[in-house]
Design a protein that fits this description.
Blueprint: E1 11-14, E2 25-28, E3 32-36, E4 42-49, E5 53-54, H1 70-78, H2 82-88, E6 100-101, E7 105-110, E8 120-124, E9 129-134, E10 137-144, E11 149-155, E12 159-164, E13 175-183, E14 186-194, E15 203-217, E16 220-236, H3 243-252, H4 257-273, E17 276-278, H5 283-286, H6 290-298, H7 306-322, E18 347-348, H8 352-356, H9 366-391, E19 401-402, H10 424-439, H11 445-460, E20 462-464, E21 467-469, H12 495-512, H13 518-523, H14 570-582, H15 590-602, H16 606-617, E22 629-631, E23 635-637, H17 640-653, E24 654-657, E25 660-663, E26 674-677, E27 679-681, E28 685-693, E29 696-703, E30 707-713, E31 716-722, E32 728-733
Parallel strand pairs: 25-30
Antiparallel strand pairs: 1-8, 2-3, 3-4, 4-7, 5-6, 7-12, 8-9, 9-10, 10-11, 11-16, 12-16, 13-14, 14-15, 15-16, 17-26, 18-19, 20-21, 22-23, 24-25, 26-28, 27-28, 28-29, 29-32, 30-31
Length: about 725
């Protein structure tokens, strides 16, 4: 038995087991997630499922009916009584939360304690396999995309396999039942979780087939020698447990680990390896254990460690793909080991979800965008209900958060009046529109949804003293300061809402061929630049900004829409850059910092991108699996940094828009050479390979359709004809 794989940027390894669930190594298939702490003698493999949410009474919650109150709400906003308007925008409701995401259970593997030598656990990003080795023994696990199973092979001698729901924070209202039994000559371990009866799912069941020399013993299984565990997991809406169907599925499946792994790898490895980043890191650095890699960055001062950045790039793509399938990633991806997930572990849509998706289209992971499309498709009818209930309007009004069960807008509070957040549907549809730009695939139903967004803005736009305005309007999750210096969220013409309206109407005309929005778009509010020369967060006079805030929603026309661009709108681009530099850092949250980094990349400021990256990588924000935290010091398990960081690096190295490809538009300091492969760009253009060294940049480009573009880099600007499907090489030298 070898000690481990050769040095590679496509793995992470540790020389000790996890001391807490947050440091467990991760694998997933977009539906199930598995967390592997790696304890040799008392393993606890936490099994997650994307749809495990704890019923709390909000399963049937609906948006408040506010349309009749709009004249009064608008009057209050316009007369400076914005806090009162915020109260009305709740519909008189208390703050209610989505159903909280929770862990399923832990598969337990217990064995007598023996001396541990040569310990190593590693995750292979290319296969999704997590392997734990010690003293000549081994456990291997992965979650199969091909067979929808959690798979674990035990090669550790005699042990006892069981299941437990005793995980941190489990509420007393959730009851577990575990049994082991023999059926048709096979040994099964079954665990059931029963939810409280408050509306929502009934519970969930997992069945594990134990193949090998195994014998039921009460509620556990005695195993002698090697064994294969395959686990199927289902949520159920009724008391009709799916045990028989799950047992049949397991019994009929492959009976050996190599076959199961090979079937999975055919669906995992190809998508993961489409994009690669090589930052000229040495083999010795690539072989560092994760603890040493993370520790080295904390002592590197202002220098970015290429070895860590390279590893985080690949880990981020691996985790993003592994967490995306039936749904896009949650706040925690698809993993949690505790029942007290922050912000209910849901899909927080006013920033976090889209930031996590930022690297999907350009990073050649259409599977991730397809998962997002499934979430949207299941909820777009609810967005119509929201628009009608809140505004009496046509079109789509999206909520700020969802647990994946529905898209009704009910999470409202005077301090978070998301009934006034008008941009949500446009924001959530933008990745689907970008997918069309990158791949050329027909928009299909997305075109109609984009038109509905334009219709919504047409209906909610109002006149104020003869000028068009969006009232009420909201810039998540802040507001103009009142006389006491406190942010009051409800306002007029939040820049994010204005930008979404402008873009929505332009795109709707493009994808439908209709000009019915042209007159309205010509009347939309323009952007404002404040006395400091910064792009204002509200296109309305007299507002004072909350500059020490983590969100930068007012930079929406820079990223993601690209309406403000240094080439086309240099004055507004300068104002947007000024808005970045005057914004405080608040709590150092990952999503706030990386949102800034994406904007800085679009504005062509490599040193500023580097500053933001350092705030993330040098702030102790990554766990041993390279999953990230929401805040410095590994506070709050959260996927924002892990999933978004690859997108920042791609945007810093490659940007494209129709007719123009930018190479190294915002290269951070400290990355003097490297190679990026496989990036997919708007305009159906693939940067098959980009390499750079001191004073030279070379790219191999492949276009799906014949086109002429300009290729721009720090060292040149070249017109280039790209025949369809034919690689073309471009080189610029200083």
């Amino acid at each position: 038995m070898t000690g481990g794989p050769p040095p590679s940027a496509h793995q992470v390894w540790d020389d000790a087991p996890a001391v807490d669930w947050t440091d467990a190594f991760l694998t997933g298939n977009g539906e199930y997630g598995l967390m592997v702490p790696g304890d040799p003698h008392a393993e606890r493999l936490v099994v997650n499922h994307h749809r495990f949410v704890l019923p709390n009474g909000t399963h049937d919650a609906r948006a408040p009916h506010l349309a009749a109150l709009l004249p009064r709400i608008r009057e209050l906003v316009l007369t400076g009584r914005r806090a009162e308007a915020g109260e009305l925008l709740t519909g008189g409701r208390d703050l209610a939360w989505t159903q909280s995401y929770h862990p399923g259970f832990a598969l337990t593997v217990d064995a007598p304690a023996t001396p541990v030598r040569d310990y190593r656990r590693h995750t292979d990003f290319t296969t999704g396999e997590v392997v734990v080795r010690w003293s000549g023994r081994r456990r291997r696990s992965f979650v199969s995309r091909a067979d929808r199973l959690v798979v674990t092979h035990l090669d550790q001698g005699d042990c006892v396999v069981g299941a437990t729901g005793d995980l941190p924070g489990r509420p007393d209202t959730v009851h577990y039942d575990t049994t082991a039994h023999r059926h048709d000559g096979l040994v099964f371990l079954r665990v059931r979780g029963r939810y409280p009866d408050v509306g929502g799912a009934y519970g969930f069941e997992a069945v594990t087939l134990v193949r090998g020399d195994a014998e039921p013993a009460g509620d556990r299984v005695l195993v002698r020698g090697p064994a294969l565990l395959t686990t199927a997991v289902e949520r159920t809406a009724t008391a009709a447990w799916p045990t028989a169907a799950q047992q049949r599925r397991l019994a009929d499946g492959p009976a050996d680990y190599p076959t199961l792994l090979a079937r999975h790898v055919t669906r995992h490895t190809g998508p993961y390896r489409r994009v690669d980043l090589d930052l000229a890191v040495s083999a010795a650095d690539r072989d560092l254990p994760v603890g040493a890699l993370l520790a080295r960055q904390t002592t590197a001062g202002d220098r970015l460690d290429p070895a860590l950045l390279e590893r985080l790039f690949h880990a981020g793509r691996y985790l993003l793909f592994s967490a995306s399938g039936v749904l896009p990633p949650r706040l925690t991806g698809i993993w949690t080991g505790s029942w007290d997930a922050a912000w209910a572990g849901d899909f927080t849509t006013d920033a976090n979800l889209n930031l996590q998706l930022a690297g999907a289209n350009v990073g050649a992971l259409p599977e991730v965008t397809a998962a997002h499309a499934r979430l949207v498709r299941a909820q777009v009818g609810h967005w119509r209900d929201n628009a009608h209930a809140v505004y009496g309007a046509r079109g789509l009004l999206a909520p700020s958060r969802t647990d994946g069960e529905h898209g009704h807008l009910f999470h409202v509070h005077p301090h978070w009046p998301f009934t006034a957040w008008l941009a949500g549907a446009h924001w959530l549809l933008h990745p689907l529109y970008e997918h069309h730009q990158v791949t050329g695939e027909p928009l299909g139903e997305v075109a109609g949804w984009l038109a509905e967004v334009a219709d919504f803005f047409t209906d909610v736009l109002t006149d104020v003293d003869g000028q068009p305005a969006l009232v009420p309007s909201y810039s998540p999750e802040t507001g103009p300061l009142d006389d006491a210096g406190r942010p009051v969220p409800v306002a007029v013409n939040a820049t994010m809402d204005v930008a979404a309206a402008r873009h929505a109407m332009a795109v709707a005309a493009e994808v439908t061929g209709s000009q019915r929005w042209a007159a309205v778009r010509d009347r939309l509010p323009g952007y404002r630049v404040d006395a400091r020369g910064a792009l204002a967060e509200w296109a309305w006079p007299g507002y004072r900004p909350d500059d020490d805030h983590r969100h930068v929603s007012h930079l929406y026309p820079v990223w993601p829409t690209g309406e403000i661009d240094p080439d086309d709108t240099p004055e507004l681009a300068a104002a947007a850059h000024r808005a970045l530099t005057v914004r405080g850092d608040e709590d150092g949250s990952a999503h706030g910092t990386l949102h800034r980094a994406l904007v800085a990349a679009r504005l062509g400021d490599g040193p500023l991108v580097g500053t933001y990256l350092r705030r993330i990588v040098a702030a102790d924000m990554f766990f041993r699996s390279l999953m990230s935290a929401h805040n410095p010091g590994r506070v709050t398990y959260n996927a924002d940094a892990a999933h978004t960081l690859p997108a920042v690096l791609i945007e810093a190295l490659v940007q494209a828009r129709p007719g123009l490809l930018r190479l190294l538009p915002a290269l951070p300091p400290g990355l003097p050479r490297g190679t990026l492969r496989g990036v997919t760009c708007r305009g159906r253009l693939t940067v098959d390979e980009l390499s750079w060294d001191d004073g030279r940049v070379t790219a191999r480009l492949v276009a799906a359709t014949g086109q002429r573009i300009r290729v721009r880099s720090p060292y040149g600007d070249t017109g280039c004809d790209l025949p369809a499907g034919t690689p073309v090489r471009v080189t610029h030298r200083r």
